[in-house]
Amino acid sequence: PLVGRLLDRYDNRTLLLGSSLGQLAVCTVLAFVSPTWAILALAALLGAGQSVNGSTWQALLPAAAGVEQLPWATSRMYGATTIAGLIAMPLAGLLTGWYGARVPLLLDAATFAAVTAAALLIRTRRGKTVVTERQSGGLRIVWHDQLLRPVFMLLTIFILLASMVNVVEVFLVRETLDADRKSTRLNSSHITI
User: pLDDT value at position 83?
Assistant: First the structure.
């Protein structure tokens, strides 16, 4: 709800530049800090910046592509996002294994510089939306709809469970597959299916 209000009230270029530059700064600082509390706080800031940045790009897409080209543009955007995600995860793992966390984080900061440059090139503007108090409750609308409420709740549970799997995968790789920093080769006797 907070990001939606930002999108409705502020210029898209301002939001894109602010969030991209903020993410660039946070990611750069994150590469050089070591206390756990600082890492968690900076990761939360990075996520907040991504929620603004990603939502702004998505909200800008209909105005940039036009109604006729919107399905094509949406499929291209999600296709590119999926491919980038598939490439980024193993690449980040390899870079972290070879160089530690600093190099991937600095490369990530460079991608935020590229997003900032792309935001400077955008000429399309979204019109500001006048939001009344009655229209402002996105979650309220979902909660009062008999179809959306259970879908929303199930989707929330699914996202939480999928996020937990990401945490467990670290232990799978390190303990079950014996792929920690001390080990240079995979011990096949520990692999379980």
Answer: 93
188: DSSP letter: G
Residues 6 or more apart whose CB falls under 8 angstroms from that of 45 comprise 22, 26
Question: How many whole angstroms separate alpha carbon 8 and alpha carbon 193?
Answer: 50
Average pLDDT over residues 117-123: 86
Sequence-separated (6 or more) residues with CB below 8 Å from residue 61: 70, 73, 74, 77
The alpha carbon dihedral of 45, 26, 85, 161 has a sign of negative
Comparing CA positions, the residue from 115, 131, 160, 124 lying closest to residue 4 is 131
What's the predicted TM-score (pTM) here?
0.66
Which one-letter amino acid corresponds to residue 108? D
**How far apart are the C-alpha atoms of 54 and 52, rounded to whole Å?**
6
For 28-87, what is each residue's pLDDT tens digit? 999 999 898 999 999 999 999 999 998 888 888 888 888 888 888 888 888 988 898 889
Helix (H) or strand (E) holding 80: helix 36-99
Spatial separation of the C-alpha atoms in residues 119 and 108, rounded to whole Å: 17
Largest CA distance in the chain: 63
Q: How far apart are CA 102 and CA 96, in angstroms?
A: 8
Tokens 């598939």 identify what position?
86
* pLDDT classification of 11: cutoffs 50, 70, 90: confident
